[in-house]
Specification:
This protein is of the alpha+beta class and about 375 residues long. It is about 25% helix and about 25% strand. One of its GO terms (molecular function) is hydrolase activity.
Length: about 375
Amino acid sequence: MSENSFSVAEALPADWREGLWLGRIDLGDGPLPLLVAGGIAHDMSRVAPTVSDLVAARAFDPAAGRPIGALDTLGLSATGTPRLLSPVDLQCVKAAGVTFAVSALERVIEERARGDSTAAAAVRGRLEERIGGSIRGLKPGSPEADALKATLIEEGMWSQYLEVAIGPDAEIFTKSPVLSTVGWGAEIGIRSDSTWNNPEPEIVLLAGADGQAVGATLGNDVNLRDFEGRSALLLSKAKDNNASCAIGPLVRLFDAGFTMDDVRAATVDLHIAGEDGYVLTGASSMDQISRDPEDLLAQALSEHHYPDGYTLFLGTLFAPIQDRDEPGRGFTHKIGDVVTISSARLGRLVNRVTTSKAAPPWQLGISGLMRNLAARGLIGVN
């Protein structure tokens, strides 16, 4: 990954000119919503000042915007000008957890190991021996799932993570505050006091206030396994930290050529390259997810109302157990790791790992964005 330069050929799929893409860039005076069609980028800020407003109005006609040039000639970067931003702004950032059998087992392992990576291998062996593949293929909330739950309770093997893996209710949590997500090429942060952590490569849906998804992109739900393993009540510290949520590079909007069925059939690949020469690869096949994306969207919306819409991380099959340094300790990040998350129809999200303390501080909040939009004449001030 180049430190600054955004390469369309490397970041977007081969058919990117055939799709309709939604994103955000900063040309130097503040963020603006962007539509890319036929390879041409269009400034949509005079149609709607934010991506949230654009989604609410379903204003996805690039002809209504201002053409600013071919996307691959704009000279976008992650840190300079013009700068590529995370493609979402005012949406609530929600995430679904434990949506794959393998990740369910890993959460149970974290819990039983009390966040101690050295104890994980022994717990993993015992758990696989007892229930192994018996939860794979189970429909959550089904009679078969209820029967397995009863058996595990009798054997003293039940866990709150298995409850959300095979019970009727999905785990839905708030991953990150509004406007805090980082985009392609930005540094991603892990807490400096974490000793066991990993990326979580996922597909992210973008939905309006009505709960209807308009498109999909890639995301990294950076996770601190030691914190959550010590207590599920530490989930917010495990998940919500400076620069701990990456989304991008752009949202591919649903159309005749790209639909929710493409999400259901997608494979999400992960590649981690460390400065120490360490390489780790993995993949999540969305056809192994235990809950349909539409069901997760509905559970995230619930009886709540997100007037500015929401994004939803769909969960990951990937749970890294490959040893990095010492046998039995599994994987954890090191500073400088380059994490690449990719999918054939969505492109590649690339970020470099640092600590949340060292990552650029998140500074542009909601009030700052409103002042910026007003100063540019994109919204009125009453």
